Amino acid sequence: MVTFESLNFSPAIPEIFLAVMGMILLIFGVFRGDKGFRLVCWFTVFSFALAAVLLLHLADISSLAFGGMFVTESFAVVMKVIVLTGASIAVLMSMQYAQREKIARFEYPVLMLFSTLGMMLMLSANDLMALYLAIELQSLPLYVLAALNRDNLKSSEAGVKYFTLGALSSGLLLYGCSMVYGFSGTTNFNDIAIALSAMETPSAGLVTGLVFILAGLAFKVSAVPFHMWTPDVYEGAPSSVTAFFAMVPKVAAMGLLVRVTMGAFGGIAEQWQQVLWLMAAASALLGAFAALRQTNIKRLMAYSSIGHMGYALIGLTAASIDGVRGLMLYMTIYMFMSAGVFAVILLMVRKGQQVEEIDDLAGLAKYNPVMAVCLAVLLFSMAGIPPLAGFFGKLFVFQAAISGGFYWLAIIGVLSSVVAAYYYLRIIRIMYFDTAENELDRVEDTPSLFMMRGTAFLAVIFALIIWPLFHVLHEAVERLLAI
To answer: How many domains does the chain have?
Structure first.
């Protein structure tokens, strides 16, 4: 029986701090109203920064809390710091956009804070019940954020679609959890792993439950065939919210996917590798080919994200230290590259109005060469052109797949990358060789501009910082697999 004295709150101090700050900021916003929007945004970023500092004190500690439902080790700490970094960037980038589009409500950053709290709990979930509660805490604020622009029909439609399909994914997840509990007798990840090791062959019911769990988690990373919400939600949601969707939740969902597969179900890797193989290959191919005919840059980025999730899943399919390390590296690179590209999208303004068509970038190199160069570098990096950051991300996941014997999966990934390079290069051609009928507005120096320049610079110098980062990620993965 779990008693209050045995709960051990200390590993969850960063999450408890964020929860308390979220409630304080919510009350503060109620009294200040929308006039306190910028102040709430800055306090939210401060909360993320302080939570990251608290996390770093737990980096060398491996411990369980709340009766074994919550775990803290290097893997969780590293992934949480990445999530907090991305969330901070998203809040800063959205401040000017939210005011320009008249959605600068104090609830905006508070919802982002509570969603980020859910992501942190996802990364420390060590039990199927904790997993479900964390996913719902992450998802519910996202449904509201997608429909935040109530005066925009597309935004309302995006919120409804996201909520409806999210409810479906929750049902699949819960059904899978119930089957796993029924056939293993436990919901704890460690106990599930022990129960599997005691079986000569896993029961069909347990494997079926695992498939349903993977289906529910695949929705969160927009992997095929659970990707259908992504293009419509990316296009319909406010651009700053879309940037948050693209950058942060998928990092947390991938981290949770690693913990479920390599932790609880690591003993039956042959079973879930088949499912992930199909998801990875289908996501890479669909992301490459479906984006070819897109004219809206947000829809293009949606299909691009589906493809990138496919590449990341290739690393997890290998079910090895190198594969998980490659996945973590890939998701880190993808988060920063997405931040830079969406920073440019947030700056696509003409006569004070947001524009989203790819053709709106025509002639950008002539009247705003710095912005064009930064976007070109980021797109080259996403395409995997060496020696930029995106090249190293793909290199390590493909190497892990080859080392694990998944040659055809690596070939599909490489061929998909070649096809996907076409639509990235098409944007660059439009910027440099097409003539602009109407120029985009010049905007004042903002966090979006800073992020655009910063991520482009990071993409260029990534080769200089990769080895220290690789060491940190390798140690984190070893700690995860040792538990």
So the answer is: 1
161 to 144, 209, 393: CA distances (angstroms): 12, 26, 32
Query: pLDDT digit of tens for each residue in the chain (483 aa)?
Result: 455 555 677 788 899 999 999 999 999 988 887 788 889 999 999 999 999 998 887 766 677 778 888 888 888 888 899 999 999 999 988 888 888 888 888 889 999 999 999 999 999 888 999 999 999 999 999 999 988 887 778 888 888 888 888 888 899 999 999 999 998 888 888 888 888 888 778 788 888 999 999 999 999 888 988 888 888 888 888 888 898 998 899 999 999 999 998 888 888 888 888 889 999 999 999 999 988 888 888 999 999 999 999 999 999 998 888 888 888 889 988 888 888 888 888 888 877 777 788 888 888 888 888 888 888 888 998 888 888 888 888 988 999 999 988 899 999 999 999 999 998 999 999 988 877 777 777 776 577 777 777 778 777 777 667 767 777 776 777 777 665
Q: What is the pTM of this model?
A: 0.92
CA–CA separation, 253 and 214 (whole Å): 11
Contact in structure between 237 and 345 (CB atoms under 8 Å): no
Pairing of strands 63-65, 70-72: antiparallel
Q: Which domain holds residue 212?
A: 4-482
Residue 218: closest CA among 129, 286, 283, 128: 283
Strand partners, 64: 71
